[in-house]
From TrEMBL:
<dbReference type="InterPro" id="IPR050383">
    <property type="entry name" value="GlyoxalaseI/FosfomycinResist"/>
</dbReference>
<protein>
    <submittedName>
        <fullName>Lactoylglutathione lyase</fullName>
    </submittedName>
</protein>
<dbReference type="InterPro" id="IPR004360">
    <property type="entry name" value="Glyas_Fos-R_dOase_dom"/>
</dbReference>
<keyword id="KW-0456">Lyase</keyword>
<dbReference type="Pfam" id="PF00903">
    <property type="entry name" value="Glyoxalase"/>
</dbReference>
<feature type="domain" description="VOC">
    <location>
        <begin position="7"/>
        <end position="130"/>
    </location>
</feature>
<dbReference type="GO" id="GO:0016829">
    <property type="term" value="F:lyase activity"/>
</dbReference>
<dbReference type="InterPro" id="IPR029068">
    <property type="entry name" value="Glyas_Bleomycin-R_OHBP_Dase"/>
</dbReference>
<dbReference type="InterPro" id="IPR037523">
    <property type="entry name" value="VOC_core"/>
</dbReference>
Length: 149
C-alpha cells in the first residue's frame, strides 16, 4: 500500500539541447509545452497535457546520459494496448530512434507488448502496454530482460 496516496507527479530530465528534446518528446508522445523559460540562461520546459506537466526538461548537461553512474535506469511509459504501442513505435521510428526489444521474445517489438529506445541524450525509455498480447514465455535468465544495458 502506498502511503498517503503518493503517485509520481512528473519526471525531470537533464538535457544537452532543450529545443531538440522538446521536439523529440512532443513528436514521440504527443505532449504539448505547458510551461517554458529561456530567461537568464536557465532554460527549461514542462511537457504534458491539459496544463499538467508529465516531463520537465532542464538544459543543464554538457554531455549525454552515462549509464555507468548512479541515477536513472530508464523512464517507462505505459499505454492502453498493443495498438497504441504500435502508434508510438511508428512515431519513434519516424524520428530515427533505434527500437530495441529486450523482452526476450523475438518478433515485432510492439506486438510483444513492450520495447525500449533512447532519447537524443541517451536516456533509456521503455514503452509498454497494459493489455499485452498472449505470447511465448520470455527467455529465461538470471534477471529481468530489461535490467542491464
Amino acid at each position: 500500500m502506498i502511503d498517503q496516496g503518493i503517485t509520481i507527479g512528473h519526471t525531470g530530465l537533464n538535457v544537452t539541447d532543450l529545443d531538440r528534446s522538446i521536439d523529440f518528446y512532443r513528436d514521440a508522445l504527443g505532449v504539448e509545452i505547458v510551461g517554458r523559460s529561456d530567461a537568464d540562461g536557465r532554460r527549461y520546459a514542462f511537457l504534458g497535457s491539459g496544463g499538467l506537466p508529465m516531463i520537465t526538461l532542464w538544459q543543464q548537461s554538457a554531455a549525454p546520459f552515462a549509464a555507468d553512474r548512479a541515477g536513472l535506469h530508464h523512464l517507462a511509459f505505459q499505454v492502453a494496448d498493443v495498438a497504441a504501442l504500435a502508434v508510438i513505435e511508428a512515431r519513434l521510428r519516424a524520428l530515427g530512434a533505434a527500437i530495441r526489444d529486450d523482452s526476450g521474445v523475438t518478433g515485432e517489438p510492439a506486438a510483444a507488448g513492450q520495447f525500449f529506445c533512447f532519447d537524443p541524450d541517451g536516456i533509456r525509455l521503455e514503452f509498454h502496454a497494459i493489455e499485452r498480447p498472449s505470447r511465448p514465455a520470455p527467455a529465461t535468465g538470471d534477471g529481468p530482460a530489461c535490467g542491464f544495458f
